Amino acid sequence: MPRRLSRLVGSALYCAHHRPRLARLRRRNRHAVAAGASVAPGTAALAGIGWHLVYLTLGGIVISMLCWNAGNQRIGPLNTMLL
Fold first, then answer.
1. pLDDT band, very low/low/confident/very high, at 1 (cuts 50, 70, 90)
2. 3-state secondary structure at position 52
3. Contacts for 4 with CB less than 8 Å, ≥ 6 apart
4. By the 8 A CB rule, do 15 and 66 touch?
5. What is the DSSP letter of 18?
6. For the chain, which residues make up each domain, given as ranges?
7. CB crowding 48-82: b at 16 or more within 10 Å, else e
8. Is the pTM of this model over 0.70?
9. pLDDT digits (tens, 9 = 90+) for 15-32
10. For residue 49, what is the DSSP state?
């Protein structure tokens, strides 16, 4: 019988799997900024929306991933594939 992973470990493995995609996205963004096709926001602009970023990061992403993993464990692997 396979060992079941906790929700937190499952989320960490998912993030580790998609890390190369994030690195590729960051690299493309740096090239776009260097070419002048995109403008990087300054620290003042980021400070102005700091609480919005925290809310989206913690509320929108982390909690959603934990709920998604809990739901997938509840409905089982076969129904997860159908979803």
1. very low
2. helix
3. 73
4. no
5. T
6. 7-82
7. eeeeeeeeeeeeeeeeebeebbeebeeeeeeeeee
8. no
9. 777 777 778 888 888 898
10. T
